[in-house]
């Protein structure tokens, strides 16, 4: 069973899934690199490319989105230039985030996801999840066939088999109503406009079946109320908690810094070295001290099988994508290689991102591809994945500082004096909502601008008099009161 910890109060939104004290999944959404997949926009057609049979759509981002002809859900035999024109407004949804110089990939075949089904206003069909048998949900399919209208479509998710027909029907009606509201909003909005945003909280909850979830812990009473309305069958699982970070196996900063480190040490001395380049991700397996003195001939395959599970876990947690090459310990036979391939395919079957394990090359390297929807953790937190050792980027220190202030809200401390690196201080005022900080932070906060620290350092914690005493002794330093 999985327990979720969703941090929504801070600027950097974080969702963590934990199973048996192990962190299984991590989702991060930040304002500098927002995850837009699932968002619905009223876009404006900027340019129609007849040769490409595609169009560039302004959705209000730095780069225009890219819409292919096949992503228009009507008149499949008609060319794109006969369907849309430059300057026209169009409802579109992001299916792949912008990446480097490329804009977001879009579709006009928009959808709204629920816990048990996905609603498609132009789907014109009822599709069943491949993990379900038609017999298991025949009654649900018959019920939905009686309520869907012309052109509407539905994808029944795996979790649909776990609930009664009326639960499915209620969710369908709710999603249809929500979609109609979006259509009405689009009539009065000016393009480009965001009409629907898929939140981190809802995204991570939907990625698991309700039967797999033990608890959903959130740091906000407002979010707790919203999720209970959104997921009525899961009300008893949703809890508003303060000081959630204390319940994690490690702090968020410890987790982030662990994921930024290129070397992962497993049990028995096995190490994984993970290197991200512009072209691909390379993972090297080193047996270290792992050896089985009684089965020397089988040591390499045992090492590789042990490493395979850890590799899949690191790929998910670090959100590695694109081409991934794994250099396992050399094995003696194709049969041994097949065991490793089978093990990887088994663990990746539960990955929410499409992952394909192709097999070993003639040089003994394993090839994998994984769908890219968002930046890797390294690029998100450190910004320079090609370095051997990646440290926090200045903006990551900003969000870490904000989390640190929230952690003090359960203490009786009166004031904090924090030394802050100039670049971090500059970004603080650019990205952090100062009014929200004034409302939510009860302590008096003082920032000392200094080049003498990397990121930030808490210099004094205690009473107002303690801070004033420090300031009196250091009148030559630049110290400003935040709140």
Please describe what this structure looks like.
This protein is of the alpha+beta class. The chain has 5 domains: 1-35 and 205-235, no CATH class; 40-107, Nucleic acid-binding proteins (OB fold (Dihydrolipoamide Acetyltransferase, E2P), Beta Barrel), CATH 2.40.50.140; 111-172; 255-370, Aminopeptidase (3-Layer(aba) Sandwich), CATH 3.40.630; 394-481, Hypothetical Protein Ychn, Chain: A (3-Layer(aba) Sandwich), CATH 3.40.1260. It is built from 12 helices and 25 strands. The strands form 5 sheets. It has a 6-stranded mixed sheet with strand order 16-17-18-19-21-20, covered by helices on one side. Helix 1 (138-147) runs parallel beside helix 2 (165-188) and helix 9 (394-407) crosses helix 10. The longest helix has 24 residues, at 165-188. The radius of gyration is 25 Å and the shape is globular. The two termini are 41 Å apart.
Topology:
Elements: E1 2-7, E2 13-19, E3 22-29, E4 40-49, E5 54-58, E6 65-68, E7 89-96, E8 105-107, E9 112-113, E10 117-120, E11 126-128, H1 138-147, E12 153-156, H2 165-188, E13 193-196, H3 200-206, E14 213-218, H4 221-230, E15 238-240, H5 252-260, E16 263-265, E17 271-276, E18 281-286, H6 299-318, E19 322-327, H7 334-348, E20 355-360, E21 366-370, H8 377-381, H9 394-407, E22 415-420, H10 422-431, H11 434-440, E23 444-449, E24 456-462, H12 464-473, E25 479-481
Parallel strand pairs: 1-14, 6-8, 11-12, 14-15, 18-19, 22-23
Antiparallel strand pairs: 1-2, 2-3, 4-5, 4-7, 4-13, 5-6, 7-8, 9-10, 10-12, 16-17, 17-18, 19-21, 20-21, 22-24, 23-25
Helix pairs in contact: 1-2, 6-7, 9-10
């Amino acid at each position: 069973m999985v327990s979720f910890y969703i941090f929504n109060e801070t600027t950097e939104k974080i969702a963590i899934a934990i199973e048996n004290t192990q962190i299984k999944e991590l989702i991060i959404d930040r304002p500098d690199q927002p995850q837009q997949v699932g968002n619905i926009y009223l876009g404006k057609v900027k340019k129609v490319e007849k040769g490409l049979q595609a169009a560039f759509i302004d959705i209000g981002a730095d780069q225009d989105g890219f819409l292919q002809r096949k992503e228009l859900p009507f008149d499949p035999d008609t060319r794109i230039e006969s369907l849309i024109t430059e300057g026209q407004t169009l409802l579109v949804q992001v299916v792949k985030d912008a990446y480097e110089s490329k804009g977001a990939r879009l579709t006009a075949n928009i959808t709204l996801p629920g816990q048990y089904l996905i609603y498609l206003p132009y789907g014109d069909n009822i599709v069943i999840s491949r993990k379900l048998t038609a017999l298991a949900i025949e009654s649900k399919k018959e019920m939905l066939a009686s309520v869907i209208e012309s052109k509407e479509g539905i994808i029944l998710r795996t979790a649909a088999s776990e609930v009664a027909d009326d639960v499915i029907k209620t969710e369908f009606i709710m999603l249809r109503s929500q979609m109609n509201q979006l259509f009405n909003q689009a009539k009065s909005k000016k393009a480009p406009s965001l009409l629907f945003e898929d939140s981190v909280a809802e995204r991570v909850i939907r990625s698991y079946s309700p039967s797999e979830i033990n608890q959903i812990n959130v740091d906000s009473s407002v979010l707790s109320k919203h999720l209970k309305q959104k997921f009525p069958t899961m009300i008893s699982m949703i809890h508003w908690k303060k000081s959630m970070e204390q319940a994690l196996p490690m702090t968020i900063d410890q987790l982030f810094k662990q994921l930024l480190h290129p070397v992962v040490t497993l049990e028995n001395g096995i190490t994984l070295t993970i290197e991200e380049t512009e072209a691909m991700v390379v993972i090297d397996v080193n047996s270290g001290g792992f050896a089985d003195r009684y089965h020397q001939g089988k040591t390499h395959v045992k090492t590789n099988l042990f490493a395979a599970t850890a590799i899949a876990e690191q790929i998910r947690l670090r959100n590695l994508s694109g081409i991934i090459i794994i250099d396992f310990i050399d094995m003696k036979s194709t049969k041994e290689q097949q065991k490793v391939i089978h093990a990887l395919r088994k663990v990746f079957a539960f990955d929410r991102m499409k992952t394909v394990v192709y097999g070993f090359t003639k040089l003994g390297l394993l090839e994998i591809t994984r769908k890219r929807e968002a930046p890797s953790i390294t690029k998100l937190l450190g910004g320079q994945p090609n370095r051997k050792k990646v440290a926090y980027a200045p903006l990551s220190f900003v969000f870490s500082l904000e989390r640190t202030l929230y952690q003090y809200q359960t203490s009786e401390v009166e004031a904090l004096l924090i030394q802050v690196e100039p670049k971090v201080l500059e970004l603080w005022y650019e990205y952090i909502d100062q009014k929200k900080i004034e409302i939510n932070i009860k302590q008096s906060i003082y920032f000392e601008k200094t080049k003498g620290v990397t990121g930030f350092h808490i210099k004094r914690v205690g009473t107002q008099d303690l801070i004033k005493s420090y300031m009196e002794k250091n009148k030559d330093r630049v110290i400003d009161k935040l709140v």
